[in-house]
Amino acid sequence: MIFRQDRYGRGGDHYPFYKAGLPAVRFTEPLEDYNHQHQTPRTENGIEYGDFEKYLNFRFMGNVVRDNAEVLRQLALAPAAPTKARLTGAVTPDAKVSWAGEDDPERAGFEILWRETAEPRWTVL
Asked: Ramachandran region of residue 84, left (φ > 0), alpha (ψ -120 to 50) or beta?
């Protein structure tokens, strides 16, 4: 995981969700071939550029679809999320977290996690 909005100078399908304040993750091919991604089809100096079907990685795309479907399944089965979540005290050494939670018999409680911005793992408070 890379903890930033997106690659420098690029955008992704997740960005409008991120901008709307919704959790968003962007899946990307780890070995991008810039000759064949987001390029106008053309040939220059003997190099073929463009998003052609022959360069698509269908196995990777299928895995992304399966991951998205599993996330949607888990969200559909999840108990109700808290509402009115707030974080105050951002310019003090003591941040305050508050929220409201509707009654939900499927929910046992809430768990608060934190991590440093560059850390990949969350820690339970």
From this structure: left
Residue with tokens 């949607």: 72
What is the DSSP annotation of 19-70?
Answer: HTT--------TT--TTSSS--SEEETTEEES--GGG--HHHHHHHHHHHHH
65 in Cβ contact with 76 (< 8 Å): no
What is the chain's alpha carbon radius of gyration, rounded to the nearest angstrom? 20
Query: Which residue, 26, 48, 46, is CA-closest to 37?
Result: 48
- Rounded distance, CA 65 to CA 105, Å? 31
Question: Which tens digit of pLDDT belongs to each residue from 26-45?
Answer: 777 677 788 987 788 999 99
- pTM for the model stands at 0.54
**The pair of three-digit structure tokens given for residue 60, joined into one six-digit string:** 């990777």
